[in-house]
Amino acid sequence: MKVTLRLLLRATAGLLLGGTALLAQGSAKSPEPVPAEPPKTIAYRIAPSDKLSISIIGESDLNAGNKRVDASGNINLALVNDVRVAGLTVAEAQTAVENAYRDGRILRNAQVSINIEEYSPREVSISGMIKIPGKYPLPPETVLTLKDLVLRAGGFTDTANGSKVRVIRTNANGTTKIFIKDIDSVIRAKDTKNSADGAFVLEPGDLVYVTERII
Fold first, then answer.
1. Contact 74, 46 (CB under 8 A)
2. Is 54 within 8 Å of 75 (Cβ atoms)?
3. Structural domain of residue 84, as residue ranges?
4. Which residue has the higher pLDDT, 21 or 183?
5. Edge-to-edge strand list for the sheet holding 207-212
6. Which run of H or of E encompasses 146?
Protein backbone atom coordinates (compact mmCIF):
# COMPACT_ATOMS: atom_id res chain seq x y z
CA MET A 1 0.00 0.00 0.00
CA LYS A 2 2.80 2.43 0.90
CA VAL A 3 4.65 1.58 -2.31
CA THR A 4 1.55 2.24 -4.43
CA LEU A 5 0.94 5.60 -2.73
CA ARG A 6 4.57 6.58 -3.24
CA LEU A 7 4.43 5.78 -6.96
CA LEU A 8 1.19 7.72 -7.35
CA LEU A 9 2.74 10.81 -5.74
CA ARG A 10 5.78 10.60 -8.04
CA ALA A 11 3.58 10.34 -11.15
CA THR A 12 1.48 13.33 -10.06
CA ALA A 13 4.62 15.44 -9.47
CA GLY A 14 5.95 14.49 -12.91
CA LEU A 15 2.72 15.55 -14.59
CA LEU A 16 2.77 18.91 -12.77
CA LEU A 17 6.38 19.59 -13.76
CA GLY A 18 5.70 18.63 -17.36
CA GLY A 19 2.68 20.90 -17.54
CA THR A 20 4.67 23.81 -16.11
CA ALA A 21 7.39 23.34 -18.75
CA LEU A 22 4.81 23.27 -21.56
CA LEU A 23 3.20 26.47 -20.26
CA ALA A 24 6.61 28.16 -20.12
CA GLN A 25 7.34 27.12 -23.71
CA GLY A 26 3.96 28.33 -24.91
CA SER A 27 4.39 31.73 -23.27
CA ALA A 28 7.89 32.31 -24.69
CA LYS A 29 7.88 34.70 -27.65
CA SER A 30 9.80 33.80 -30.76
CA PRO A 31 12.43 36.41 -31.66
CA GLU A 32 11.29 38.98 -34.18
CA PRO A 33 13.24 39.06 -37.45
CA VAL A 34 15.78 41.85 -37.79
CA PRO A 35 14.78 44.14 -40.66
CA ALA A 36 17.20 44.32 -43.55
CA GLU A 37 19.27 47.47 -43.68
CA PRO A 38 18.16 49.67 -46.60
CA PRO A 39 20.76 50.64 -49.21
CA LYS A 40 22.69 53.74 -48.23
CA THR A 41 22.37 56.63 -50.64
CA ILE A 42 23.69 60.16 -50.72
CA ALA A 43 22.94 63.22 -52.81
CA TYR A 44 25.25 63.20 -55.82
CA ARG A 45 27.72 66.06 -56.10
CA ILE A 46 28.79 67.20 -59.53
CA ALA A 47 32.38 66.36 -60.45
CA PRO A 48 34.82 67.47 -63.15
CA SER A 49 34.20 65.68 -66.48
CA ASP A 50 30.47 65.29 -65.76
CA LYS A 51 28.37 66.27 -68.78
CA LEU A 52 25.37 68.50 -68.03
CA SER A 53 22.38 69.94 -69.82
CA ILE A 54 21.08 73.33 -68.67
CA SER A 55 17.57 74.59 -69.39
CA ILE A 56 16.28 78.05 -68.51
CA ILE A 57 12.53 78.37 -68.53
CA GLY A 58 11.35 80.92 -71.08
CA GLU A 59 14.88 81.48 -72.42
CA SER A 60 15.37 78.71 -74.98
CA ASP A 61 18.24 80.58 -76.65
CA LEU A 62 20.25 80.22 -73.43
CA ASN A 63 19.66 76.48 -73.08
CA ALA A 64 22.79 74.37 -73.39
CA GLY A 65 23.47 70.65 -73.65
CA ASN A 66 26.64 68.56 -73.60
CA LYS A 67 28.31 71.00 -71.24
CA ARG A 68 31.34 69.26 -69.81
CA VAL A 69 32.49 70.37 -66.36
CA ASP A 70 36.13 71.39 -66.80
CA ALA A 71 39.08 70.47 -64.59
CA SER A 72 38.56 73.62 -62.54
CA GLY A 73 34.98 72.60 -61.80
CA ASN A 74 33.30 75.19 -64.04
CA ILE A 75 30.84 75.18 -66.92
CA ASN A 76 30.88 77.94 -69.51
CA LEU A 77 27.46 79.46 -70.24
CA ALA A 78 26.27 82.15 -72.60
CA LEU A 79 26.49 85.71 -71.24
CA VAL A 80 27.83 84.68 -67.81
CA ASN A 81 30.96 82.75 -68.80
CA ASP A 82 32.27 80.37 -66.11
CA VAL A 83 30.02 79.17 -63.30
CA ARG A 84 31.50 76.86 -60.70
CA VAL A 85 29.36 73.76 -60.13
CA ALA A 86 31.80 71.03 -59.04
CA GLY A 87 31.14 69.85 -55.51
CA LEU A 88 27.52 71.02 -55.63
CA THR A 89 24.36 68.96 -55.71
CA VAL A 90 22.12 69.42 -58.74
CA ALA A 91 19.80 71.69 -56.73
CA GLU A 92 22.75 73.79 -55.52
CA ALA A 93 24.14 74.03 -59.07
CA GLN A 94 20.77 75.24 -60.35
CA THR A 95 20.81 77.99 -57.73
CA ALA A 96 24.40 78.92 -58.66
CA VAL A 97 23.44 79.36 -62.33
CA GLU A 98 20.31 81.34 -61.40
CA ASN A 99 22.43 83.63 -59.22
CA ALA A 100 24.96 84.11 -62.03
CA TYR A 101 22.28 85.37 -64.42
CA ARG A 102 20.63 87.49 -61.74
CA ASP A 103 23.87 89.02 -60.40
CA GLY A 104 24.96 89.77 -63.94
CA ARG A 105 21.67 91.64 -64.45
CA ILE A 106 20.81 89.46 -67.40
CA LEU A 107 17.74 87.71 -66.01
CA ARG A 108 15.80 88.98 -63.02
CA ASN A 109 14.08 85.70 -62.11
CA ALA A 110 15.91 82.89 -63.86
CA GLN A 111 14.48 79.41 -63.34
CA VAL A 112 17.13 76.83 -64.14
CA SER A 113 16.89 73.07 -64.55
CA ILE A 114 20.04 70.94 -64.71
CA ASN A 115 20.27 67.29 -65.72
CA ILE A 116 23.35 65.08 -65.63
CA GLU A 117 23.70 63.54 -69.10
CA GLU A 118 26.86 61.61 -68.38
CA TYR A 119 28.73 60.89 -65.17
CA SER A 120 32.49 61.13 -65.02
CA PRO A 121 34.32 57.84 -64.30
CA ARG A 122 33.99 57.12 -60.59
CA GLU A 123 36.15 54.47 -59.04
CA VAL A 124 38.39 53.64 -56.10
CA SER A 125 41.35 51.28 -56.03
CA ILE A 126 42.72 48.88 -53.43
CA SER A 127 46.13 47.22 -53.39
CA GLY A 128 48.60 45.54 -51.06
CA MET A 129 47.72 42.56 -48.89
CA ILE A 130 44.22 42.05 -50.29
CA LYS A 131 42.95 38.98 -52.12
CA ILE A 132 41.47 40.74 -55.19
CA PRO A 133 43.35 44.03 -55.71
CA GLY A 134 42.22 46.41 -58.42
CA LYS A 135 39.86 49.23 -59.30
CA TYR A 136 36.24 49.15 -58.21
CA PRO A 137 33.40 51.34 -59.56
CA LEU A 138 31.69 53.80 -57.27
CA PRO A 139 28.07 54.14 -58.48
CA PRO A 140 26.59 57.67 -58.34
CA GLU A 141 24.41 58.46 -55.33
CA THR A 142 25.53 55.28 -53.57
CA VAL A 143 27.71 54.96 -50.48
CA LEU A 144 30.70 52.61 -50.57
CA THR A 145 32.32 52.19 -47.17
CA LEU A 146 35.87 51.03 -46.52
CA LYS A 147 34.58 47.81 -44.94
CA ASP A 148 32.38 47.16 -48.01
CA LEU A 149 35.36 47.61 -50.33
CA VAL A 150 37.58 45.23 -48.33
CA LEU A 151 34.87 42.56 -48.38
CA ARG A 152 34.20 43.13 -52.08
CA ALA A 153 37.91 42.69 -52.73
CA GLY A 154 37.82 39.24 -51.12
CA GLY A 155 39.12 40.22 -47.69
CA PHE A 156 42.64 40.40 -46.31
CA THR A 157 45.43 37.96 -47.06
CA ASP A 158 46.97 35.97 -44.23
CA THR A 159 49.85 38.45 -43.93
CA ALA A 160 47.75 41.63 -44.00
CA ASN A 161 47.87 44.23 -41.27
CA GLY A 162 44.13 44.89 -41.27
CA SER A 163 44.35 47.18 -38.25
CA LYS A 164 46.23 49.85 -40.21
CA VAL A 165 44.55 50.18 -43.60
CA ARG A 166 45.56 53.38 -45.38
CA VAL A 167 43.23 55.53 -47.45
CA ILE A 168 45.08 58.07 -49.60
CA ARG A 169 42.87 60.92 -50.78
CA THR A 170 43.84 63.75 -53.13
CA ASN A 171 41.84 66.91 -52.51
CA ALA A 172 40.60 69.31 -55.18
CA ASN A 173 43.45 71.73 -54.37
CA GLY A 174 46.05 69.03 -55.03
CA THR A 175 46.92 68.29 -51.41
CA THR A 176 46.97 64.71 -50.15
CA LYS A 177 45.52 63.37 -46.93
CA ILE A 178 46.09 59.90 -45.47
CA PHE A 179 43.59 58.16 -43.19
CA ILE A 180 44.57 55.05 -41.19
CA LYS A 181 41.67 52.77 -40.26
CA ASP A 182 41.30 49.56 -38.24
CA ILE A 183 39.12 47.33 -40.43
CA ASP A 184 40.27 43.99 -39.02
CA SER A 185 38.54 44.66 -35.68
CA VAL A 186 35.36 45.72 -37.47
CA ILE A 187 35.18 42.62 -39.66
CA ARG A 188 35.91 40.32 -36.74
CA ALA A 189 33.59 42.33 -34.45
CA LYS A 190 36.32 42.36 -31.84
CA ASP A 191 36.09 46.01 -30.92
CA THR A 192 32.90 48.02 -31.42
CA LYS A 193 34.65 51.32 -30.72
CA ASN A 194 36.23 51.06 -34.19
CA SER A 195 32.89 50.64 -35.99
CA ALA A 196 33.27 54.16 -37.40
CA ASP A 197 36.40 53.01 -39.23
CA GLY A 198 34.39 50.42 -41.14
CA ALA A 199 31.74 53.01 -41.96
CA PHE A 200 34.33 55.38 -43.45
CA VAL A 201 32.83 56.58 -46.76
CA LEU A 202 35.09 56.39 -49.78
CA GLU A 203 35.23 59.11 -52.43
CA PRO A 204 36.07 58.86 -56.14
CA GLY A 205 39.81 58.58 -56.66
CA ASP A 206 40.59 57.22 -53.19
CA LEU A 207 43.55 54.83 -53.07
CA VAL A 208 43.33 52.12 -50.41
CA TYR A 209 46.51 50.31 -49.40
CA VAL A 210 46.66 47.31 -47.05
CA THR A 211 50.07 47.02 -45.42
CA GLU A 212 51.81 43.75 -44.54
CA ARG A 213 51.86 42.53 -40.98
CA ILE A 214 55.35 42.43 -39.41
CA ILE A 215 55.95 38.99 -37.97
1. no
2. yes
3. 51-118
4. 183
5. 134-137, 123-128, 207-212, 160-170, 176-181
6. helix 146-152
